[in-house]
Structure formats: C-alpha cells, structure tokens
Amino acid sequence: MTIAASEFARLVVALSVIPFLVIMSRNMRFARGSRLPFVILLSAIYASYILTIVEGFFWFELLNALQHIAYGVAGLAAVPIAWRSRQDVLGEMGR
Amino acid sequence: MAIPSGRPRRDGSLMLTAVIVGNVVAIVTFLIAVAITISTPSGKNSTMTSLTKWLLVTAFAIRAYVSMTKIVEVYTGSNFFEDFGDYIEVLFPVMVVMSVSSAFMAQKMADIDRSQRAMHATNEMMLGMVDAAPAGILVLDGGGTVTFANDSARHILDLEEDPDTGRLATPGWTVTDPSGVRMPDFSFLIRDTSTRPVKLCVEWPDSKWKLDLSVSARPLQSDGDRMAGIVATFETPVAKP
Fold first, then answer.
1. Chain A residues near residue B57 by CB distance under 8 angstroms
2. What are phi and psi of B194, to 5 degrees?
C-alpha cells in the first residue's frame, strides 16, 4: 500500500488552502444561487483527492468509480457557477 | 483498457463505464464553464475583474485537462499523463483561492467606491440645503475665524472670499451686545456654547451699516470633548440707518 507522491502533494496543497477559502467565502457576496454549487464543486474535488488515496487501502473498485464520478459532479457544479456569475456581472453593468 | 488510478489495476466493465462517463461529463461541463467565463465581461469596477476571470478560466481548464488525461490513460494504458495531470491538478485549489481572493478584494473596493459616492451625494445635498437656507449660517473654527458661510450669511454680513487663499474676509465689524458692550468679534460665541439665541448688533466701519441679529450657536466637537468650532445661524435682520 503506497501513496503516489503526486496524489499526496495534491491533497496536502488542497488541505492547506481550506482556511483561506472558508474565511474569504464567508465574507464574500456570491452571485445569486452560486454559493451552493461552489460548495458542491469544492466538496466533490476534495472528495476525489481523498478517494484517490483511500482506494489504495480498501474497496478499490467502488472508491475509484466514486472518484471519477466526483469529477463529473464537480463539472456539473461548475456550469451554474460560471453562468450565474456571468448573469450577476451583466446585471451590475446594467445590461 | 485500463482503469486510471495509481493503484494496481483490475478490469471491471461497470467501473470502466463510471470512469469514462464521469470524466467525459467533467470534460464537457468544465469546457462549457470555461467558455461561459471567457464570455463574461470584466472591468476595473466590476466584481469580475480580469484577474478573477482568467484565474477561474485556468482552474476550470486544469480540471478539464486532468479528466482528459484520465480518458487518454483508459485507451493507452500509459501512466505518464496521469502523473503529469496529478501535478498540474495541484494548481487547481491554488487557482480557486486566488480567484476567490481577487473577487473578494474587488467587492470590497466596489463597496468602498459606492460608500464614497453616496457620501459625496449626501454632502452635495446638505451643502445645497445650507446654501439655499434663507437664514445666515456661519462655521467658525476654534480660533474664531470664519471657515464657512452660506450665501445668505455672505450677503447679510458682506463677506468676501479671497480668491488666492479661499479664506473669508470680514469687513472689520464692531460687534456689541444690546446694551452696547463691545464684543471683539464673533469669536465670543466660541466661549458661550449656550443654545439660547444671543442678540447682537453688528456695525460696519464708518457706521455705514448696522444690523441687529439674533444668533443661535452650537459647538462642533472634535475627538473627545475638545471643541473644534461652532456653527452659528442668524435670521434676516431689520436694518437700522
């Protein structure tokens, strides 16, 4: 049971930026309806990072599948974030 | 076909389907997100600054690229793209934090700008109200110097503004109370911060003009209890020859 260096580095960097994300996200105004997709996006990405490492210890097939499904979930959450941010900016500009 | 992972591989059609579907959905959706973000207008005074926009585009593109490497690995069995993709993917949370930070700062700057404009508009309105008031309104500093006078006060008291210094010059009045006791000038109002009106007589040099005024004053407080000046108002007087 070895952990790939790249996977470990990825998880360490991701975990280290969590405090900054939490603090700034709490004080920031998100575009209407984009806060939840943002949480889902980050949760899915972080879940995939953790699953990549855990799958080496047990339930490889299931956790590996969940890891890749998490990528798809993250992508599905990214579209409303981008769209609603765009609508918010257009609203700001009065268009 | 191989199942992308850093682990020993096992072949399973259901797992393979999940890998392909998950990553194809990720590629398509993240590329759509890239396109939408690129088409979003950005501006200096917008919460979507250019920096925020391109950080988001980079983050979404990284995610799409990583999913592409997974698909490539499924069909080629090569680990190269997966390892490279894992290291590239380290940038994703960094890009997200930077874009959130950039958007956060842009929002704060926009809030400050809005507050300043609102304050400026309020100041303009208050100044307009003061200038339009029929009563004379004076502001004196702690030393008794007139620092502001509205249009009515300037007209009644014959105040002229020095074009070079912007200071208001008084025409050398003689200020007395109703019993005739002379006051040095309006600066005595600094000492007397009572709110009841004070009757004064203002006489121009050479007795050219004499006015009876009823003056009300309020102190202007600075930090703590120190008085920074005074605001005085007076009604339109009845002139005596």
1. none
2. -65, 150
Strands (E), B101-237: 136-141, 146-149, 160-161, 168-169, 174-176, 182-183, 198-203, 210-221, 227-234
pLDDT computed for residue B8 by the predictor? 39
**Which residues of chain A from 44 to 63 reach within 8 Å of chain B, CB to CB?**
45, 52, 55-56, 60-61
d(C-alpha B136, C-alpha B44), whole Å = 44
| Closest of B184, B187, B198 to residue B146, by C-alpha | B187
3-class DSSP state of B50:
helix
- Interface contacts A/B by beta carbons within 8 Å: 160
B133-235 architecture in CATH?
2-Layer Sandwich (3.30)
* pLDDT digit string, tens, across residues B71-92: 888 888 777 776 777 788 889 9
Residues recorded for chain B: 241
d(CA B102, CA A64): 34
Interface residue of A17, A68, A83 to substitute, partner B, most B CBs within 10 Å: A68
CB atoms within 10 A of CB B201: 20
Radius of gyration (C-alpha) of chain A in whole angstroms: 16
Q: Closest to B6 (Cβ–Cβ): which among A7, A72, A88?
A: A7
Q: Tokens 């019993």 appear where?
A: B179
Residue ranges per domain, chain B? 7-125, 133-235
Q: Tell me which amino acid residue A62 is.
A: L
Q: Hey, which of A67-76, B186-195, B230-239 has the most confident mean pLDDT?
A: A67-76
Percent of chain B that is helix, strand, coil (3-state, to 5)? 50, 20, 30
Chain A residues whose beta carbon lies within 8 Å of the beta carbon of residue B24: 72
Confidence category of residue B6, pLDDT binned at 50, 70, 90: very low
Q: What tokens does B18 get?
A: 């999940």
CA nearest neighbour of B158 among B211, B225, B233: B211
Of B29, B60, B66, nearest to A76 by CB-CB distance is: B29
- Taking the CA of residue B119 and the nearest CA in chain A, the distance in Å comes to 20
